[in-house]
Amino acid sequence: MSQFPIRRMRRLRRTAALRRLVQETHLVPAQLVWPLFACHGEGVRREVPTLPGVYQTSVDELVKDAERARRLGLGGIILFGLPQSKDATGSEAYDEQGIVQQAARAVKRATPDLLVVGDVCLCEYTDHGHCGVLQDGEVENDASVYLLGKVAVTQARAGVDLVAPSDMMDGRVAGIRKALDAAGFSRVPIMSYAAKMASAFYGPFREAAGSTPQFGDRQSYQMQGSNADEAMKEIELDVSEGADIILVKPALPCLDLIRRAKQQFGSPLAAYQVSGEYAMIKAAAERGMLDEQRAMWETLYAIRRAGADIVLSYFAPCAAEQL
Ligand code: PBG
Fold first, then answer.
1. Which domains does the chain have, with CATH numbers?
2. Mean of the pLDDT values across residues 27-34?
3. CA distances from 148 to 45, 46, 133, 172, 256 (A)
4. Which of 153, 183, 202, 219 has the fewest CB atoms found within 10 Å of its own CB?
5. Residue 184, by phi and psi: left (phi above 0), alpha (psi -120 to 50) or beta?
């Protein structure tokens, strides 16, 4: 029952103006969040070898990036930290003078209107590189949740607008909510990395953040990429514990989960186009294998089309500049 020649799909593709008119999915800078890495020191701007265009920056330099983010109208920045020194419990993560706390204060002073998200995790701060504390060689859930609550509270005190736990401990959204409320921060929302897969695509990030596990891997807390029903269960639990925004990660390998989560939960939904997704495009483009800009747009629109309202991406400033 072909309707041809009445129905010709190509009619609406003929010119750029027609294509623009019928474009279904849109992206605005306010939907993009830019991940930044804060380190100690002054005047530091070190490019991450595996992530061209991504830098470890001292607070003074990071403030410049924050000002750029504000000029571009980005949805916000998310802060990761490289501590002065690491220890068994990741204590700099919940130190009032920790690097993320310092960066948050400086950014809020310079650009009060820019949304600042704090990544709440221990892996960048522990000497063993796991996202929680260890007991008998295993990541101990409840003790880790207790510390994550302290991370969130110190970040809130430093002025972050939103905390984003990425550790995948059970019950951490409830624990963080309770800790924030008890400290007088009931106004601070939580964006939980609700469905976070144990992914190979975090490789470059671990170099950027110095957070590679010193033994074993993260499979006892991050999810298996093969499980979609379990991902929905994870999200449901986080929503019931009080997550205000839910996040799926990585993005491209999980487009189906983004779609399902949007349909099932209707909460504001974020997706993280992670370091490996970015590095893959950068590396292929460097070798002349594909067009970087087109690959960037295609992936960002795919993530939006799947159902993400918010996209965390290292491409954020580059995309926003062209929007
Ligand atoms: C840490 C954390 C990770 C990322 C964000 N927060 C890495 C990990 O779990 O090892 C990955 C982000 C990226 O790859 O860009 N809990």
1. 27-322 (3.20.20.70)
2. 98
3. 28, 28, 10, 7, 29
4. 219
5. left
**pLDDT (tens digit per residue) in 180-213:** 999 999 999 999 999 999 999 999 999 889 899 9
Q: Which two tokens stand for residue 278?
A: 């970015």
Question: Which residue numbers are catalytic?
Answer: 196, 249
Q: Which residue's CA lies nearest to atom 6 of ligand 1?
A: 166
Residue 1 pLDDT > 70 = no
Instruction: Name every protein residue with a CB atom under 6 angstroms from any ligand 1 atom.
Output: 119, 121, 123, 131, 166-167, 202, 205-206, 211, 218, 274-275
Residue with tokens 């009619």: 11
Query: What confidence score (pLDDT) does residue 35 get?
Result: 98
For residues 62 and 106, is the Cβ–Cβ distance under 8 A?
yes
> How far from 180 is each of 147, 156, 194, CA to CA, in Å?
12, 8, 19
